[in-house]
Design brief:
The complex is a heterotrimer of chains A (78), B (248) and C (116). With 78 residues, chain A is mainly alpha-helical. Chain A has one domain. Chain A is built from 3 helices and no strands. The N and C termini of chain A lie far apart (51 Å). With 248 residues, chain B is mainly alpha-helical. Chain B has 2 domains: 35 residues; 198 residues, no CATH class. In chain B, helix 3 packs across helix 4 and helix 9 packs antiparallel against helix 10. Chain C has a single domain, classed as Helix Hairpins (Orthogonal Bundle), CATH 1.10.287. The longest helix of chain C is centred in the C-terminal third of the chain and has 32 residues. The chains are: A mainly alpha (78), B mainly alpha (248), C mainly alpha (116). The interface between B and C is large, with 65 and 60 residues.
């Protein structure tokens, strides 16, 4: 269990770096979604299923979708 | 401020913050330790109120006032998005184009999962006092799940089924019900959002007093909020465009 | 292992803040802010963790309540925060849409003054 938790925290730290270093917001929507899944798995691994549930809904679906729609809206105008 | 200057500023401020936060991290009780005074107070209180999901008990019973605050932030953000993204005077709303081909597999996936996700969402809200989940998570699942109609069918199908006014009223109703319930319990018992309803027996669906009720009101608010938010962004993307000849 | 999770939380928070500072795009800045917020969830959930303790939910399957569970208070804070921060992110994205419409750009470095 210790190993699983340590690996999850490391993955989330790496995921955060990837999301921040992705410069194109359209690609960021995808990396953010993956980061959201990693966070949810981490919450599951530290016995916080309620937090994991809300993270799956918000962090992997709604926020990336809205980022994607915002990118499309602002791109088309140029 | 130019970019190099700003990065240098951040290097300085971020460095100091990092040192302070790391020092603070070493002063915290060790990760995974057994000292949790809040837990020791919250678990017996939740059990006394016949709520097996202690987290729901904290959100909707023990610390209901905080949830009212969170809900108000949610309501304010949704209203802010609606105000910011309404079509401006120099924009017009056009009919969404029909077109684009959809793989049959995608359509099947969408229609198959639409009832499943909606049911899961409703169950998550209803069983919020018993199992992991509750109004916040269930509301999100319902709000996103209904957008499978967009994935499976089309924007028009989504618009036909989704009457936005219903969800705008739902948003207000959810927040209002929470606050009114708080005032009512305040008048009855003298404490805002006190759990005055019959508690029932530990582990039953209809137990835990007001937790079930407040769970549902938050579920309605969050589901409606998600629907309204996504509707605004989708409409911006698909329908609203700059009118020709409008000057910036 | 006793401080590693806290250090990861600090790291994620600072990485998000760094992303906002070096950002060349408003949408990018908003996404970086949500990464910084993730750092706060990590800290909350890490503080409430206890080794070999089950989640603070006694309903599925029905179990006898014990005190040896992960801290429900911090989890309640984190879960409401996840949902509320999602809607606040939506508000910031709406502002980004509006800035792009009115000023025809999305780089915060070019943003001098807001016009109506």
């Amino acid at each position: 269990m210790t190993v699983v938790i340590a690996v999850m925290f490391t993955l989330v730290a790496a995921g955060a770096v990837v999301v921040v270093m992705t410069d194109d917001p359209a690609r960021q929507a995808v990396t953010l979604s993956v980061f959201g899944v990693l966070l949810a798995l981490l919450f599951l691994s530290v016995s916080a299923p309620d937090v994991a549930l809300s993270q799956i809904g918000v962090g992997t679906a709604i926020v990336p979708l809205m980022v994607m729609l915002t990118v499309r809206k602002t791109r088309r105008r140029r | 401020m130019s970019r190099p200057v700003r990065l240098a500023m951040f290097g300085l401020a971020g460095g100091v913050t990092a040192v302070l936060l790391v020092l603070a991290a070493f002063a915290l009780p060790g990760f995974g330790g057994s000292r949790h005074p809040y837990r020791d107070a919250a678990v017996p209180a939740a059990v006394r109120h016949a709520t097996p999901n202690v987290i729901s008990s904290i959100n909707f019973d023990l610390r209901g006032l905080d949830t009212l605050g969170e809900e108000t932030i949610l309501l304010a953000s949704v209203v802010g998005v609606v105000v910011l993204l309404r079509p401006a005077a120099d924009e017009r709303v056009r009919e969404p184009r029909i077109g684009g081909r959809l793989l049959d597999g995608t359509r099947l996936f969408g229609y198959l999962f639409l009832p499943i996700t909606t049911t899961i969402g409703l169950l998550t809200v209803a069983h919020g006092a018993l199992t992991p989940g509750g109004g916040f998570q269930g509301g999100v699942v319902i709000g996103t799940g209904l957008h499978l109609l967009y994935v499976a069918g089309s924007y028009r199908a989504l618009k036909r089924v989704r009457h936005l006014e219903v969800f705008e009223y739902g948003e207000a109703l959810g927040a209002g019900a929470f606050a009114c319930f708080g005032v009512a319990t305040g008048l009855v018992s003298g404490a805002f959002l006190a759990n005055v309803l019959p508690l029932g027996s530990f582990g039953d669906l209809f137990s835990s007093g007001s937790v079930l009720l407040l769970n549902c009101s938050v579920g309605i608010e969050v589901a409606s909020g998600v629907m309204v938010l996504l509707a605004q962004f989708l409409a911006q993307d698909i329908e609203v465009e700059q009118a020709e000849g409008a000057k910036r | 292992m006793t401080v590693y999770p806290y250090l990861v939380a600090v790291f994620v928070f600072l990485v998000g803040a760094f992303g906002i500072v070096r950002s060349r795009n408003l949408i990018h800045a908003v996404v970086c802010l949500s990464v910084a917020q993730a750092g706060t969830y990590l800290l909350l959930v890490a503080v409430g963790f206890q080794w070999k303790a089950p989640p603070p939910v006694f309903g599925s399957p029905p179990t006898k309540p014990t005190l040896k569970v992960t801290d429900p208070l911090v989890q309640a804070m984190a879960l409401t925060d996840v949902v509320v921060s999602g809607t606040v992110t939506a508000l910031l994205l709406a502002i980004a849409v509006q800035v792009a419409k009115r000023q025809d750009m999305s780089d915060p470095n070019e943003l001098a003054a807001l016009r109506g």
